[in-house]
Amino acid sequence: MNVSTLRIKRALLLPAAAxxxxxxxxxxxxxxxxxxxxxxxxxxxxxxxxxxxxxxxDSTDADESDDQSDQxxxxxxxxxxxxxxxxDESDDQSxxxxxxxxSDPYDSDDSDTGQSDGSGQTSHGESxxxxxxxxxxxxxxxxxxxxxxxxxxxxxxPAVTVNSPAxxxxxxxxxxxxxxxxxxxxxxxxxxxxxxAIGYMFKVPSxxxxxxxxxxxxxxxxxxxGFDRKxxxxxxxxxxxxxxxxxxxxxxxVGSIGxxxxxxxxxxxxxxxxFVLQTTFAAEQKESVTSAIRTLQRTIQVV
Length: 303
Description:
The longest helix is centred in the first third of the chain and has 13 residues, at 62-74. The model is unreliable at 1-35 and 43-132 (pLDDT under 50). The chain has a single domain (3-37, 69-302), classed as Protein Transport Mog1p, Chain A, CATH 3.40.1000.10. The chain has helices spanning 3-11, 16-19, 62-74, 135-141, 210-222, 286-298, and strands at residues 122-123, 131-132, 148-149, 160-161, 169-170, 181-184, 196-204, 228-233, 242-251, 255-267, 272-280, 301-302. Strand 1 (122-123) and strand 2 form a beta hairpin. The protein has 303 residues and is of the alpha+beta class. Helix content is 19%, strand content 21%. It comes from Spelaeicoccus albus.
C-alpha cells in the first residue's frame, strides 16, 4: 500500500477540516460567482428577494448585510452558476453536466463535518491541534436547542443527492462518522491530497428561522484561525433557501486552507432539515477541480 493510499484512507476517517487542503493565497480566489440573490435577512433587500427566497419578515442581521457588501467588493465580474437537478445515488456513478462558463470554484467548503457523534465538529484531527466548536454548537448558540444528526436511512427524512463529477465517485462507506455522503477523486493523477466533498444533514424544529441557520454557518467558519472570507451567496438550491460561504483559514501544519460550504434549509411541516456540503482541494488542483466543484454545487437535489 503506497503513501497516497494510506493518506486518503486516513483522511477519510477525519472531519472535513482535516480533509481541507492547502490553498495558496496568491492567484487563488474562492468566490461565489455573482450577481447573486439578495440577502433575504437584510431589510434593504426584502422587496428585491427572489421568488425562491421567501420573505423573512422582520428578521435582520447586521453581519449578513456586511456579507453582501463584502461580496460586492470581492466578487466583481463573476457569473453565478445555475442549478441542476441531476441525481446520483450510487457509490460509483460519475458524470457532470457541461460546466464551461466561469473559471473559479464556486462554493465554500466548511468544517461542518461530524466527529463520532455526527455533530459537525471542526477539527484538524491531530493531538494538540485546535478543535473548534461544532455546527450543532453554533446552532444552539443562535437559539436552536433541538438538533439531531440524520442518516440516509432515517425514515421520513428528505433524501439529498449530489452528482459525482467526472473522475470522482461516491465513497459513503469511507466518509467520516456521522456524514451523510462522501464524494472523492482518489485518482493517482491528482496528487497526494484527494479532492473531496462531504455532506451532513441535521434535523431541527420547524420553527427554526433562516437567520439562525445562516448565522451558525457563518459563525463556525469565522471561528477558524485567520479565517478570511472571500464571498457569500444566498442563491436558492433546488427551490430551497440556502446560504454559502467561501474563504481561507490558517493551519500551522498545513498552511492556508480553502473552505467552500453550501448550507440548504429543507422546510417540512413537522421539522426542518439542514443539509451542509463542504468541498476541499489543494491549491495546485484549483484549475482541475473548478468544473467539478461547480458540478457538485449545481446538482444538489432534494427528493
